[in-house]
Design brief:
The chain is 15% helix and 25% strand. By secondary structure, the chain is α/β, with parallel strands linked by helices. It has two domains: 6-153, GTP1/OBG domain (Spo0b-associated Gtp-binding Protein, Chain: A), CATH 2.70.210; 159-327, P-loop containing nucleotide triphosphate hydrolases (Rossmann fold), CATH 3.40.50.300. The protein has a six-stranded mixed sheet with strand order 10-11-9-12-13-14, sandwiched between helices. Strands 3-1-8-5-6 form a five-stranded mixed sheet, with no helix packed on it. The longest helix is centred in the last third of the chain and has 15 residues, at 248-262.
Length: 328
């Protein structure tokens, strides 16, 4: 399924039905009086988060949603039926904007009323009084609410995977979860965010793999940072680096600067630095690199290999929160 994380649609709740102007007309009954019924309300627009849905592709082609109008009132005090409601099914994590203002944030599967349908009009029965036995007054149904709204999807994950292209983010996600992400020996094998669920015993974490960032991403270079919104909700970040690269510290700073340029809050999130591809260097070289980086980087640093599985189990325990950490 194609990954779409933004969609602009037109939405209109239903208009209310008009009230009815009617008088009772029956044989042998004198002074029948008013009997016009009320109009039905217009259809409501609801939104509901759907677990397991991770794309807005359903709104790529269908961009107009109109709820049904309420039925007009009728004689014999018959009220019109309400218009049929519309329930729009969205991925959990979708934010809804109207005129650049956030009006709803879908964080669970509860059904939320987005736009109410217009109220039905009143029939002339409602205006009968001791001084006005034959009212000829009714009210029209209210108009429904219409607007162009923007859906923005921010995937809900516990931890976000970031790093330069080919650092091994997708390979790690495949190792620690059941996700079947694409892996290749070329940059930008991941072109859209992917989710994976990591489980161990009764513990689980949702991991988001974000397409690789490069220097200048905040200016649109490479894939830009159009997908970084998907880690804004994460509580922590896994920053992956290729340990075989000669300029490790510069690579680290490049990604940190891009995160900060996008949103200063991302720079404040808890971080785990993972040095991947330890199978490409000797153990002595790895230890020297680790010792040097610990002097420059405050975050926890782990050495792994997605090829040999070195450090994978230890990293999983750290991500999930080991028993020892929970005790402390």
């Amino acid at each position: 399924m194609k990954f779409i994380d933004e969609a602009k649609v037109y939405i209109k709740s239903g208009d209310g039905g008009d009230g009815c102007l009617s008088f009772r007309r029956e044989k042998y009954i004198e002074y029948g009086g008013p009997d016009g019924g009320n109009g039905g309300r217009g259809g409501h627009i609801y939104v509901q988060g759907i677990k397991g849905l991770n794309t807005l592709v359903d709104f790529r082609f269908q961009k107009h949603f109109r709820a049904k109008k309420g039925v007009h009132g009728a004689g014999r005090k018959r009220n019109g039926a309400a218009g049929k409601d519309i329930i729009m099914k969205l991925p959990i994590g979708t934010q809804i904007y109207e005129d650049d203002e956030l009006i709803e944030d879908i964080i669970d599967n509860k059904k939320i009323l987005l736009f109410s349908g217009g109220k039905g009009g009143l029939g002339n029965t409602n205006f009968k009084s001791s001084t006005n036995r034959t009212p000829r007054k009714i009210t029209l149904g209210e108009k429904g609410h219409e607007a162009d709204v923007l859906f923005k999807l921010k995937l809900i994950a516990d931890t976000g995977l970031v790093g330069l292209p080919n650092a091994g983010k997708s390979s790690l996600l495949r190792k620690i979860s059941a996700a079947k992400t694409k892996v290749g020996e070329y940059p930008f094998t991941t072109t859209a965010p992917k989710l994976g669920v990591m489980r161990k015993g009764d513990r689980e974490k949702i991991i988001a793999d974000i397409p690789g960032l490069i220097e200048g991403a905040h200016l649109g270079t490479g894939l830009g940072f159009q997908f970084l919104r998907h880690i804004e909700r994460c509580t922590s970040i896994i920053h992956m680096l290729d340990i075989s690269e000669s300029n490790l510290l510069d690579n680290y700073k490049t990604i940190r600067n891009e995160l900060k340029s996008y949103n200063i809050e991302l720079d404040k999130k808890s971080e785990i630095v993972v040095l991947n591809k330890s199978d490409l260097i000797t153990q002595d070289e790895a230890e020297k690199i680790l010792k040097a980086l610990k002097k420059k980087i405050k975050s926890s640093i782990f050495i792994i290999s997605t090829i040999t599985n070195e450090g994978i189990e230890e990293l999983k325990n750290i991500i999930l929160g080991s028993d020892k950490e929970n005790e402390t």
